Amino acid sequence: MATVKGALARALLRLFAVQGSYNYERMLGVGVGVAEEPLLRDLGDGKYRPAVARGARFFNAHPYLIGLAVGAAARAEHDGAPPDQIERLREALCGPLGSLGDRLVWAGWLPFLSGLTMAAIALSAGWIAVGVFLIVYNIGHVALRWWALKAGWTHGTRVSVALHHPVLQKAGALLGPAMAFAVGAALPLTAAYLSAPFDSWARLALAIVAALSFLAFRLRGDRINGLRLSLALAAVALVVGLIWQ
Amino acid sequence: MILPIELLIALLVWGTLVGVDLVSLPQMMIARPLVAGTVAGAILGDIPTGLKLGVVFELLQYDILPVGAVRYPEYGPATVAAVATAHASAGVLGLGLGALVGLVTGLFGGVTINVLRRVNSRIVHAAAAQLESGDPSALVRLHVGGLLRDALRAAVVTVFGLVLAWLARPLLGGVLSVRGAVLLAVAIVATALAAGAAGTLRLVGRGPNLAWFAAGLAGGIAATIWLR
C-alpha cells in the first residue's frame, strides 16, 4: 500500500510538468509517459517497457485532468488488460477530458477567480487580492489533479464512471453562471479603475474606441484578435501622437 | 530605463519563471498577468503600476482560450517587461509605453512558443525508436530537455522585453507629447476592455449564462456609479 501511495505521489509530482515537452507530433504523450512511469515500475520485466512505450504515445487533453488517463492506463496495465484495449481507452479519454477540463477550468474556475480579482483590485484591495487569487485558484488546481489521478487509478478501464461524478457535474453547472456574473461585474469596475488617470476627453475617446473595438471583435472575431487590434491602434495612436504635438 | 543590475536579474528570473509556468511547469497561474505584473511591481517597489498593467493584460488574456494546439501571445513575461517600462516613466506615459512594450513582447513570446513546439516535434520524431522501445531514461531525458528548452525560451523572451523596455523611454518618451502618450494609453486600454468583454461573451455564449453576465454587468455599473 505504501509503495502504491509513493508511486502515486511521484506520478502526481510529474503531472505538474506534463506539458514540459509539448510538441505537435505526440502532443502531451511524452509527458504522460513520464508521469505514468512510476506507476508501472512493479510490472514484470516483459510488461514494463511495452507499457512505458504505450504511455508515451500521442495524447492530448486538459493538463489538470490528465491524471485520470495516467491512473486508468496504469491500473489497466496492472490488471492485465490487452494492449489494444489500453490504446482504445487512451484514445477514448482524450476528447472528454479535454472538453470537461476546458469547461471547468479555462472557461469556469480561472476566469471566475480572475474576474473577482480584477473587481477587487478596482475596489482598492491591492496585492492582497492577487495573493488570495493565487491561493484559492491553486487549492482547486491541486485538488483536481490529485482527484483525477486517484480516480483513474481506482477505476482503471471503468474510468468513465469518474467522469460522471456528481461534484464535477455540479461544479460545471455552477461555474458557468458564476464566471459570467463575476466577469460581467468586473468589466465596468475595471474600466473606471483604468480610466481614472485620464481627462474627460480621453475618457470619451476611451469609450468610443472600446465600443468600436468590441464591435470589431464581435463582427470579425475570426480575423481580429486582441493583440493584433491593440498593436494596430497603438501604431495609429503613436503616429497621431507624434504629429499632434 | 536604467535599473540596478540586481533588479534586472530579479526581473529576468521572475519573467523566466512566469514563462515556464504558462505551459510547462507547474501551471499555477503565476503566468497570469495579474500575478506576473503585481510581483514585477513589487520587485521594482511600484506595486500600483504592476497592478494596473496586470489588469490591462489580464483583460487581453480573456481573448485566449488555450485549447488544443491553438497559438496565442504570451502575456506573462510581456507584463513583466511592461511594468519595467512603465516604472521608468510617470503616469499615463508609463501606462501607454509599458503596454506597447508588453504587446510587442507578447507577440514575440507567442512566436517562440510555436518555434519551441516545432523543435520539440523534430526531437521527438528523431527519438521515436527509443520511445517505442520503452526506454524510461530516454523518455525522461526527452522530457527534461523540453523543460530546459522552455526555460531558455522564457528567459530569451524576458530579455527581449527588458531590452525593449530599456529602449522605449529614450526612443519614444522624448518625442511623444503628453497628448500622444494619452492617445497611446487610451488605444491600448480601450482594446483591452473590448477584448475582455468580447472574450467573456464567447465563453458565456447565448444560453442562460448570458443573463448572469448581464446581471453582473448591471451590478458592476451600479457599483461604479455608487462609488463615484
Describe this structure in words.
- The complex is a heterodimer of chains A (245) and B (228).
- By secondary structure, chain A is mostly helical.
- Chain A has two domains: 2-197, no CATH class; 198-245, no CATH class.
- Chain A is 78% helix and 0% strand.
- Chain A has ten helices and no strands.
- In chain A, α2 runs antiparallel to α3, α2 packs across α4 and α4 packs antiparallel against α5.
- Chain A starts with a helix and ends with a helix.
- Chain B is an all-alpha fold and 228 residues long.
- Chain B has one domain.
- Chain B is globular and about 65 Å long.
- Chains A and B meet through α2, α3, α5, α6 and α8 of A and α2, α3, α5, α7 and α8 of B.
Which percent range describes the beta-strand content of chain B? under 5%
Structural class of chain A: mainly alpha
Rounded mean pLDDT score of chain B: 94
Q: Could you tell me the radius of gyration of chain A in angstroms?
A: 23 Å
Largest interface here, residues on each chain? A-B, 102 and 113 residues
The residue ranges of chain A in which pLDDT falls below 50 over 5 or more consecutive positions are: none
* Strand proportion of chain A: under 5%
The helix content of chain A, as a percent range, equals over 70%
Query: Count the helices of chain B. How many?
Result: 9
> What coarse outline of chain B follows from CA principal-axis ratios?
globular
The count of β-strands of chain A is 0
